[in-house]
């Protein structure tokens, strides 16, 4: 009979008297199980492993019953039976055996099944060995691996939490990171509490989950018998390893925590530069005790949280100071303006998607001026920091002062640019200054690198008003040009002038012109009231969460039945600047019509044009043209053209083919009265026109 499987394990011919030397060297015993007779023969080493004396074993497997517990015997029988049924050549298993002293020992066996030519199993030969040390080493390795995995997992959580905390800008950001499901809950904490030290007390700033708040702990003294108070006093962590320890150590607090089934807790002082700024508690419901490694990890976590909290507290303090500075720099109140409805708004930027607000250099201002006029300012200093806010405040004040002194809009802007340049700052500013005569509706606009204004009609239609502009404030001096052209627009009753900074217009990836069109469409569909409209525009800016601040000024002109006395407009006309002359003509035409002098508008414009032209041709330097209403009762309008020459104008006779010499004749013919006045080192040529009463329905 061929013995298949003989190559798997061969026993010596004189076995079991002389076991295989290799097996003996490896402290293994051998066995030969005759399946036909049922006898289970073992060598001396195998009997030693089973703790059997020679006289206690006669070859029958039943003799091993005292050494192999029933459950283990059933498992081994099932294993062998399955191997035989499957046609396997071998099997192996670890099992426990009971020594004569009653202790259990792990043993390993491996059998080789020998079959005849028909495949029928006839014998099983194999080995047994003591596996106690092997499994002990394996268990130790598994335990070490498990501990390494646990440490790695906890360290990873700490690293992830630290990385997330690095982006926290406010105290609330820090709390949100800690309460996030991907944060500390991976450490198994059931509940988290955190408090900050303020004026000798601990103020609770975070607790969770919902419903775990302990009454009376919102603000506690440092000397009270609470674990957070203790770690703040001692600057040492407190690890509570059982409910009994918690109840004994903190009898006031413990009754309020029983519903949470707390089994242990770790309270950590939050220390920065040897000073406690707060404390944090992690409460567990499935842990008893803390290993040294876990304690070290939690202490390291507390240190990281403390550093993040300190940064957040510094940031919030800086924000409070900066925002206070900026609010102080903006106008505290906006004066009421007769004949107009005004709304102003400011929205700080949101940087990096944070809930916190940054500050910036955007500002608005409204300046009451003599003669029923008002100056409206919108501007933006480069940057989003306290320096930008400080520059903004200084620039707002000087621009207001220049306007109040009576300078023309172009001069106001030029002087403001010089002032910013002399501040010796690296910041520049864009600005738009609009000087509106509410009696006439004439608005003179000067633009320094700023976006154009918009005008909304009573029917909701909104249009962008292109205004010629100069360089931003501060840059015009550097590039050697202080010329700021003046644009003129008419603001009819019921129309609204809107000035804003680019934070309301610009969007990432969008063209500025597209942004202006989108803003005009938004204004057209907005509320009629200027305050409601301003609120709506700021709401849209908040929804966008833009990274630029927004300043907004809306001025709506109310209707007036009669011209108001004292109305005054002024335009600076430089020699060699045809645009300035064009703007002056536009201003005169718009003002005379608005003041009810439509019937004489052509005459007034023609006379003013002659006076301006004479000043530019026969004197050196610029001309300043002023248009004002002298008296509403007799409806008298006055045009003044001032220059720097003291030479008086002379009436000259024009030749038959002459093109000059007719100016004063024309003035004398068209004006009701005219004259010349000395003005310092120069003169002023003036003329007056009596405006006829308007009939019913006249415009």
Brief overview:
The protein has 699 residues and is an alpha+beta fold.
Description:
- This protein is of the alpha+beta class and 699 residues long.
- It has 16 helices and 27 strands.
- It is 33% helix and 27% strand.
- The strands form 5 sheets. A 6-stranded antiparallel beta sheet has the order 8-7-6-11-10-9, with helices on both faces.
- A hairpin with a 2-residue loop joins strand 26 and strand 27.
- Residues 352-356 and 561-566 have low confidence and may be disordered.
Structural class: alpha+beta
Low-confidence stretches: 352-356, 561-566
- The chain-level mean pLDDT equals 82
Q: What is the strand tally?
A: 27
Span from first to last CA? 132 Å
Query: Number of DSSP helices?
Result: 16
Beta-sheet strand percentage? 25-35%
Q: What is the overall silhouette?
A: elongated
Radius of gyration: 48 Å
Helicity level: 25-40%
Question: Major sheet: size, sense and barrel closure?
Answer: 6 strands, antiparallel
Strand order of the largest sheet: 8-7-6-11-10-9
List the SSEs and their pairings:
Elements: H1 21-25, E1 28-34, E2 40-42, H2 44-49, H3 70-86, E3 90-98, E4 104-115, E5 121-130, H4 132-165, H5 171-179, E6 191-198, E7 201-208, E8 219-221, H6 227-234, E9 238-240, H7 243-249, E10 264-272, E11 275-284, H8 292-329, E12 340-347, E13 361-369, E14 373-381, H9 386-404, H10 409-422, E15 429-437, E16 442-448, E17 454-456, E18 462-464, E19 469-470, H11 475-478, E20 486-490, E21 496-500, H12 512-524, H13 530-544, E22 550-557, E23 568-573, H14 578-594, H15 601-618, E24 623-631, E25 636-643, H16 663-670, E26 673-679, E27 682-690
Parallel strand pairs: 16-19
Antiparallel strand pairs: 1-2, 1-5, 3-4, 4-5, 6-7, 6-11, 7-8, 9-10, 10-11, 12-22, 13-14, 14-15, 15-16, 16-20, 17-18, 17-21, 21-22, 23-24, 24-25, 25-27, 26-27
Helix pairs in contact: 4-8, 8-9, 9-10, 14-15, 15-16
